[in-house]
Amino acid sequence: MSSTAPIPTPPTPPTLTAQTDELRCTDADRDRVIDVLKSAYADGRLDQAEFDVRFDLTMKAKTYAALEPITRDLVAQPAAVAPGPAKPARDLLPPPTTEERLLGALAQATTLVPIVVGPAIIYYTVGKRSEFVKHHAAGALNLQLTLLAVTIVTFGLGGALYGIAWVLATAFAVVALAGAPLRQPWVLPIFGRGGPYEKRD
After folding, report:
1. Is the dihedral of CA 101, 106, 111, 116 positive or negative?
2. 8-49 pLDDT, tens digit each
3. Reduced to 3 states, what is the DSSP secondary structure of residue 151?
4. For 139-186, how does the pLDDT look when each residue is reduced to its tens digit (9 = 90+)?
5. Both 108 and 170 in a single domain?
6. Is residue 191 domain-resident?
7. CA–CA gap between residue 129 and residue 185 (Å, rounded)
8. 3 in a domain, yes or no?
């Protein structure tokens, strides 16, 4: 006679109400959310990049209102509707601030003077605390390194592309100022591959 092992149920995150969502959460509340993320990652509903972003948001959360969106698409809701697929990690990130937009535009504008030092500094400093700035600094670095590689391979003939690069740098800076992500599939993906702002088809 064979027996069937019970199917484990995922942990339940904190339940929110209109009265509690602005209350400050505890370490135990964060631990419950992390358990949900681990379960979703093990099930394949989150990839590594999405798990890392949500884990970071969980550890930084101060209130129940900040915790709730992190697992909203991972836990069954009271309504009799099956939860949809997990949202991309970038959809959980807060909109970029004015400062982040300006720094992202600055990183892109450094291509006007093709020296990788500028975007590299932004990538390794501000990029540590802002995924948006890191995304645009990585794009600027990738573009400059791609142009450099083409110039070397063509024995200097690729230098003519820098005129086009100035136009692209201006356009990409405008995109950053608008607070939008940027996809550059035609450049070498040396920096930023797999970040939350990288779109997946």
Report:
1. negative
2. 555 555 554 444 557 888 888 899 999 899 988 888 888 888
3. helix
4. 888 888 888 888 888 877 766 777 777 888 888 899 999 988 887 777
5. yes
6. no
7. 25
8. no
Q: Same domain for 172 and 107?
A: yes
Exposed/middle/buried for residue 105 (C-beta within 10 Å: 0-12, 13-18, 19+): buried
Q: 3-class DSSP state for residue 180?
A: coil
109 shares a domain with 58: no
**103, 75 in Cβ contact below 8 A?**
no
Which helix (H) or strand (E) covers residue 40, if one does?
helix 27-43
152-161 in b/e form (b: 16+ CB < 10 A) is eeeeeebeee
> Which segments of the chain does DSSP mark as H helices, in order?
27-43, 48-60, 64-67, 98-109, 117-124, 131-153, 162-177
Whether 195 maps to a domain, the answer reads: no
Residue 27 three-state SS: helix
Do residue 63 and residue 114 come from a single domain?
no
Strand blocks (E) in the chain: none
Domain hosting residue 122, numbered range: 98-177
Tell me if residue 14 falls in helix, strand or coil. coil
Whether residues 119 and 57 share a domain: the answer is no
Amino acid (one-letter) located at 48: Q
Within 10 angstroms of residue 41's Cβ, the number of other Cβ atoms is 18
Residue 63 domain-assigned (yes or no): yes
